[in-house]
Design goal:
By secondary structure, the protein is mainly alpha-helical. The protein contains 5 helices and 2 strands; from the N terminus they run H-E-E-H-H-H-H. Helix content is 62%, strand content 3%.
């Protein structure tokens, strides 16, 4: 009932309503299901170059029996997919590094940087507290 009232309201203000929603707003683009052969060729080309010239896009589209827009959109989507993967990889790598250093390592690996700094600081303090001619055991 509410939908009919909404349709009537839209008709009163001059908006044409169809079974598919507002007139002229349905998307005529169908989702493209790429074949394995097409995907393989597109991935190979992407591995070679992340950006296409128009001439190369025309050539690939003709070879794969796609239109230029399909090839162009596939490359845009593939670049975004790679960017997302790189971002996730970088964030998971930094999370792994942070967790290994915060849980206290065994003295080796990435968690040992803090321990090394402590050792350097301690050795600097002990050498600074002794005079050049005195032995370290004579400290009081």
């Amino acid at each position: 009932m509410e939908a009919q009232a909404e349709d009537l309201r839209l008709q009163l203000i001059g908006v044409k309503v169809t079974d598919y929603g507002l007139a002229g707003t349905q998307n005529n683009a169908m989702r493209t299901n790429f074949s394995t052969r097409q995907l393989t060729e597109l991935e190979k080309e992407f591995h070679f170059s992340k950006y296409l010239t128009r001439a190369r896009r025309v050539e690939i589209a003709a070879t794969l029996e796609l239109n230029e827009t399909q090839v162009k959109i596939w490359f845009q989507n593939r670049r975004m997919k790679q960017k997302k993967r790189e971002r996730e990889g970088a964030s998971s790598a930094s999370t792994t590094a942070r967790s290994s250093s915060s849980h206290g390592g065994s003295g080796t690996g990435s968690g040992s940087g803090f321990n090394k700094e402590l050792e350097d600081t301690n050795s600097d303090q002990s050498s600074a507290s002794t005079s050049p001619g005195a032995s370290p055991s004579s400290e009081t």
